[in-house]
Write a structure and sequence with these properties.
Strand content: 25-35%
Number of helices: 6
Largest sheet: 4 strands, mixed
Shape: rod-shaped
Number of strands: 12
Strand order of the largest sheet: 4-1-12-11
Order of helices and strands: HHEEEEEEEHEEHEEEHH
Distance between the termini: 91 Å
Structural class: alpha+beta
Length: about 200
């Protein structure tokens, strides 16, 4: 009866302090989100605001293949970026099997009980984001970076280029129109009418 009590007490303590992979790395990791060229973009994770332009928060390792963030910027379209890959932490699994499997009660025989494997499996501590997925990089075993390619808002540069092209197009049309007037192809009335149409575009 006393041996059973010690066994149960040890099992409870083990679950509380968890095992190798859960201790070294934890069941969560730090995710840093960066939205290059969009310092005013708001970042949301699971419906909660996390930061603007850059955000740092914890995420469950077991959900690394279901990771998604929502990006919002005033005057732009809202986008949800999803990451669907995760990798297995092989070294953590080996550490759990070697260091956290089996126990001995009151100097008795060694019992091959895989309590470490059970705990780590339940917490999802064996998983991590897959750095082979586009936009994901590793800082260390507990910190991962996500680079978001936000296309919901045109950059100022591209907008300016489009405006310049449109402006140049109008000038070219007006020059051609003036030539037609000078050559007598158009009357003054026709010229003014066409000019107004071009300027109103």
């Amino acid at each position: 009866m006393k041996s059973l009590f010690y066994f149960l007490a040890l099992l409870v303590i083990t679950v509380i302090i968890t095992s190798c992979a859960t201790i070294i790395g934890g069941s969560k990791y730090w995710a840093q989100i960066q939205v290059p060229d969009h310092p005013n973009a708001k970042i949301e994770y699971k419906g909660m605001y996390q930061g603007t332009g850059v955000a740092l928060f914890t995420a469950k390792r077991s959900e690394a293949n279901q990771f998604s963030v929502k990006i919002k910027e005033e005057g732009c379209e809202t986008e949800t970026k999803k990451f669907s890959q995760r990798s297995f932490r092989g070294w953590a699994f080996v550490g759990t099997v070697v260091g956290w499997t089996g126990l001995t009660i009151n100097g008795g025989p060694w019992l091959p009980i895989p309590f470490g494997v059970i705990v780590d499996g339940a917490t999802g501590a064996w998983w991590k984001p897959d750095i082979n997925e586009k936009g994901v990089s590793k800082q260390d075993y507990k910190h991962y970076n996500y680079y978001i390619d936000y296309t919901g808002c045109k950059s100022k540069t591209s907008t300016t280029i489009e405006q310049d092209k449109h402006s140049n197009s109008k000038i070219d049309k007006l020059i051609d129109l003036k030539k037609l007037l000078d050559e007598g192809v158009l009357t003054n009335e026709e010229f003014e009418k066409e000019k107004k149409t071009i300027l109103d575009e």
